[in-house]
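Technical annex, item 7. During the second reporting period the consortium partners agreed on a shared format for inverse folding records so that results from different sites could be compared directly. Each record opens with the tokenized structure and is followed by the designed sequence. A conforming record, contributed by the partner at site C, is shown below for reference.
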């Protein structure tokens, strides 16, 4: 083999060794073996888990939210507490005074549950001057004596205006009454004092949320009003339910052509059952549907009960009217029938969930009359420092104050002028609300009644349309509050980590409702989405 052949062979061998393609060797030529490295196994990349939030991060988010420009001129009070330990998680102006709006109901209803008990029932009595004789005739006036049964209402009977009245009429019939030779008298003297809190504003008084208080209430002390367009050029169509002889309606509203300006105006005379409807409604306009208050609802109660008795065959020869003074001793004192209310546990839920003002004011006055009985020396009571000469509402406020003192709320932390929060004179602190919720959530023997009375986010009451589609829905339960420039929300919630918190948030002095509730709702969402540990 010459030099050229040897060079070609060496080059061929080098190429063979470095090329990954299998090459058949020449005869008599052995190629070196090729070592192929195995494919390397990839190193696992760790999957990162989101970091658990810290309390510091949570509180920083809340403080940052409070600095938003839309609320900077208002006042915000917040108290957030661990239900398990009582540890304060966050607070801002928690000891300052705020107008509470309907968060005032928390104190009144909690006191009623505790002092009256959940099984308490309101009683309406029918008194006659003598027992019912064999002939079924009552000779003399029959008295309907109310003690504040708010459940004689459409709210407890699926919209039936007459259900409670019919239940009472049926009891009178079962007592054997066939004829009343006298009048049917509505007696609302059980509560003393004014029918309306003196600090309520006059422009609230014609609508259902400003209904007056009576110990003989009916259908939330309001009537349902509908005003719709009629034929063009004619009067508007007006309907008032239930039909009655007490209310007088002056209808000066006219129907105008479609596309014209709506100028409808509805005005109830103060302290009178007179309704004036003026202005105009364009054809095709939806008109107005709502509820207006009744002045002296006991008068309407007596009038409609007489009608229901007549329908059941009981003859009443006299009139139906009202008395608001104490009944003369010895007159109409035989109880021939009585109607008991739904238990307070049910009434409490019907009060708190829709935020019913009149029910709350009735509970306040009932607390007052219970305290009066306790203070009566003739019944073995003691006068203490509260004068029994105070009216029902004043005594009720004293009863609430006494309850709050017993559970450890600072005496000056709640300044109460009414039961419901419609008064702009009420003042409370977020700390007082949190303390109440802590007591009712842990120490009260009626904790389940209390919790069941609260509105549930995204489910019912005043929170049915809030927090839907969030972790707060079905989780947060508590009490809202809204009047002009005021929003509040207090209650219980469970965090993403399963810890229960008490929260009270009150915003004052912010004109736009959406700015107030926006702040409150974001704070609640921060809390329900918090996955860290509070303790």
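Designed sequence (site C submission):
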């Amino acid at each position: 083999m010459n030099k050229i052949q040897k060079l070609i062979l060496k080059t061929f061998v080098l190429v063979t060794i470095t090329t990954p393609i299998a090459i058949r060797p020449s005869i008599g030529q052995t190629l070196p073996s090729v070592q192929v490295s195995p494919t390397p196994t990839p190193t696992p990349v760790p999957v990162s888990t989101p970091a658990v939030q810290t309390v510091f991060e949570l509180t920083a988010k809340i403080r940052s939210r409070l600095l938003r420009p839309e609320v900077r001129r208002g006042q915000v009070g917040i108290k957030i507490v661990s239900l398990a330990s009582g540890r304060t998680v966050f607070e801002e102006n928690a000891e300052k005074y705020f107008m509470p709006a309907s968060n005032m109901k928390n104190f009144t209803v909690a006191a009623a549950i505790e002092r009256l008990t959940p099984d308490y029932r309101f009683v309406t009595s029918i008194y006659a001057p003598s027992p019912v004789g064999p002939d079924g005739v009552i000779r003399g006036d029959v008295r309907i004596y109310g003690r504040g049964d708010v459940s004689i209402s459409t709210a407890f009977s699926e919209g039936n205006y007459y259900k409670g009245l019919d239940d009472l009429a049926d009891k009178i019939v079962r007592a054997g009454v066939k004829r009343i030779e006298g009048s049917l008298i509505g007696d609302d003297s059980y509560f003393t004092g004014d029918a309306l809190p003196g600090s309520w504003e006059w422009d609230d008084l014609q609508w259902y949320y400003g209904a007056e208080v009576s110990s003989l209430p009916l259908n939330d002390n309001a009537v349902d009003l509908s005003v719709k367009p009629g034929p063009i050029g004619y009067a508007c169509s007006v309907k008032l339910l239930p039909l009655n002889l007490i209310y007088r309606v002056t209808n000066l509203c006219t129907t105008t052509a479609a596309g014209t300006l709506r100028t409808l105006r509805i005005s109830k005379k103060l302290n009178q059952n007179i309704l004036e409807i003026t202005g105009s409604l364009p054809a095709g306009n939806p008109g107005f549907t709502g509820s207006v208050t009744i002045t002296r609802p006991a008068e309407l109660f007596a009038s409609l009960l007489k009608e229901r008795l007549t329908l059941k065959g009981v003859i009443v020869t006299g009139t139906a009217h009202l008395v608001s003074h104490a009944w003369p001793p010895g007159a109409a004192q035989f109880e021939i029938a009585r109607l008991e209310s739904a238990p307070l546990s049910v009434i409490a839920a019907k009060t708190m969930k829709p935020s019913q003002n009149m029910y709350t004011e009735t509970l306040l006055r009932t607390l007052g009359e219970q305290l009066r009985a306790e203070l009566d020396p003739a019944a073995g009571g003691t006068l203490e420092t509260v004068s029994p000469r105070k009216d029902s509402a004043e005594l009720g406020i004293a009863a609430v104050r006494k309850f709050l003192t017993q559970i450890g709320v600072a005496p000056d932390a709640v300044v109460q002028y009414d039961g419901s929060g419609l008064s702009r004179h009420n003042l409370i602190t977020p700390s007082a609300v949190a303390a109440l919720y802590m007591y009712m959530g842990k120490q009260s023997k009626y904790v389940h009644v209390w919790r069941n009375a609260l509105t549930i986010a995204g489910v019912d009451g005043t929170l049915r349309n809030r927090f839907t589609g969030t972790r707060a829905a079905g989780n947060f339960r508590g009490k809202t509050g809204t009047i002009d420039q005021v929003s509040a929300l207090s209650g219980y919630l469970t965090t993403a980590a399963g810890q229960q918190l008490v929260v009270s948030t009150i915003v004052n002095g912010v004109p736009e409702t959406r700015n107030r509730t926006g702040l409150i709702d974001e704070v609640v969402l921060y809390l329900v989405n918090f996955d860290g540990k509070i303790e």
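DSSP finds eleven helices and 24 strands in the chain. Residues 121-342 form a domain with the D-tyrosyl-trna(Tyr) Deacylase; Chain: A; fold (CATH 3.50.80.20). All partners now use this format for quarterly exchanges.
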